[in-house]
Design brief:
Layout (H helix, E strand, L loop, with lengths): L14 E2 L2 E2 L6 E12 L7 E9 L2 E5 L9 E8 L2 E13 L2 E6 L4 H16 L6
Pfam families: PilZ
Organism: Leptospira ilyithenensis
GO molecular function: cyclic-di-GMP binding
Length: about 130
């Protein structure tokens, strides 16, 4: 494996829910409220529950209808900071909508990395 593709996480963190993952980026389970809206500005934002977050994408639970390929904006509070992320709906399974991020601003990427790091390495930290 090339050095540029090495993960900072040990092999013990390659398991998520007991299933071997193909993802190259770490992610965490969580349960926080968020809003999701079409980036085009059409429609009104809807509330959802953010259930999974990583530097490459997220999953959320919503009863609202989105379609694969929709470009969306998700807003939520992370590390006490209101965070806005744009991405593309990648998959829909029941109430679960999976979004792959467009290019993340460096400050948002760092905030997500810090959140993941606290989750794995500092369990006493307030998230």
């Amino acid at each position: 494996m090339a050095d540029s593709q090495k993960s900072i996480f040990s092999d013990s963190y390659s398991m998520y829910g007991g299933v071997k993952q193909k993802r190259k980026k770490a992610r965490v389970k969580l349960d926080i409220p968020c809003e999701i809206s079409l980036s085009s500005g059409k429609g009104t934002p809807v509330t959802a529950q953010l259930t999974d977050l990583g530097t490459g994408g997220l999953s959320l639970q919503t009863t609202s209808l989105f379609y694969e390929g929709d470009v969306v904006t998700i807003s939520f509070i992370l590390n006490k900071v209101k965070t806005f992320i744009q991405g593309t709906v990648n998959r829909i399974a029941g109430k679960t909508t999976t979004v792959v991020f467009s290019e993340l601003p460096s400050d948002v990427h760092a905030r997500i990395q810090e959140f993941i790091h606290k989750h794995y390495f500092d369990p006493k930290a307030k998230l």
